[in-house]
C-alpha cells in the first residue's frame, strides 16, 4: 500500500505540492507567533535578571526599566544625588551603581557607570581591562571597536542635529564578555566623566542641574551647559561628596529580604521610586500576551480557511479518481484498502506540510530574533518546548479526522458505478 501511495503522489506531484505549501504556510504563521512571543519573554526576563532593584525619580516605571535595563533613550526625571550617597553607605547593599546617559558613538549608547556594575553584571573581559581613568572606556561584546580606539561622544543623533563633544575623547581599554543583554551594545565609561562632560560638578551642581532640566524639556542644545573630561584623572567612586542629579541607580541588595525592605523604603518617601524590573516586565508581558492572542486568532483563522480548502480539494480529488478507485475495487482491492490509500495520502501530505511549517516558523522566528538582537543587543532564545510537540500532534489528529471524510467517500463507491462514470 505504501508503494502505491508514493507512486500516486509522484504522479500527482503538482497538486500534492500545493497542499503541502498551504498547510506549511498556515502552520508556520502560528508557530512563528508562538516562538517569537516566547523568545521575547525569555530574552527580556534574562536581561533583567542581572538587575535586582532600580531606584529612580517618580514617574513611569516602564520607562525607567526600558531606559535603565534595556538602554532605550528617553529623558528621565532626575532624583537628588544624595540618594546615591545614602545607598552607597547602606550596609544592606552589596553595590549601588549610578548610571548616566545621553551621548552615543556610531549609534552605540555611551553609559556612565562604575566598576562595581561592570564587575557585578559581566563574566569578565574577552580582552583588555577595566577602565581606571576618567578618559577610559570598556565596550560590550557587540560593539565593533578594537582596543585603543578613540570614542568621541555625540549628544543626540547625527541626523537630528546632534553635536559631537570634540574636546573630549575616551580610549577603549577593554571588551567584556557577552551577556545577552542590551549592555552588549553599550560603551561603558566612568560616571564622573559623564557628569564632567555635561558640566555637572560639585561647584556648579545646582546651575547645571537647572540647565539640564531645561534642555530635557526644550530639546535645544544651546541651553545645555557643557564641560570636558580630564582623561588622566583617577576614578572617584566613593560618592561621599555632593553628587549631581541622577536618572537611576542600579542596586544589588545582599539578600532578598533586604531587597524588599529597600523597595518599600525608597517608595515611601515620595521623592524616589524603587522597582523590581521583573514586576514591571510582568505588566508588559500582559500587553504582549494580548497582542499574541490577536495574532493567534489570525493564525487560527488562516488555518481554518486552509482546512476548508483542503477538504474541498480532497473531495474533488476523490471525484476525479472514480475510475481509478473502481479499477482497484474491480481487481479485488477491499473497501478498507481503498479507504486506507486515500486516507494515508492526505494524512502524509498534511504531515509533510506540518513538519515544513514548523521548520519555516522556526526560521522566521530566528530571523526576527536576529534582527531584534542586532538592534537592541538583547538575545532572544528561540526554542521549542513540549507544548509545541503537543500542538504538532493535535494538528496531525485533526488532519487524520479530516482525511477520513474523503476516504469514506471513496470507501462507499461501488466498482460498477465508478467504472461507468
Automatic annotation (TrEMBL):
> Which residue ranges have biased composition labelled Basic and acidic residues?
211-227
Q: What is its main location?
A: membrane
Q: How does it sit in the membrane?
A: Multi-pass membrane protein
The subcellular localization recorded is: Cell membrane
Query: Which stretches make up the ABC3 transporter permease C-terminal domain?
Result: 304-414
InterPro entries cross-referenced by the UniProt entry:
ABC-4/HrtB_transporter (IPR051125), ABC3_permease_C (IPR003838)
Q: Name one Pfam family in it.
A: FtsX
Record keyword ATP-binding present = no
TM spans, by residue?
Answer: 294-316, 336-362, 389-411
**A cellular component term, taken from the record's GO annotations:** plasma membrane
Keywords for this entry? Cell membrane, Membrane, Transmembrane, Transmembrane helix
- Stretches the record annotates as Disordered: 204-227
| UniProt-listed PANTHER family | ABC TRANSPORTER PERMEASE, ABC TRANSPORTER, MEMBRANE PROTEIN
What's the protein name?
A: ABC-type antimicrobial peptide transport system, permease component
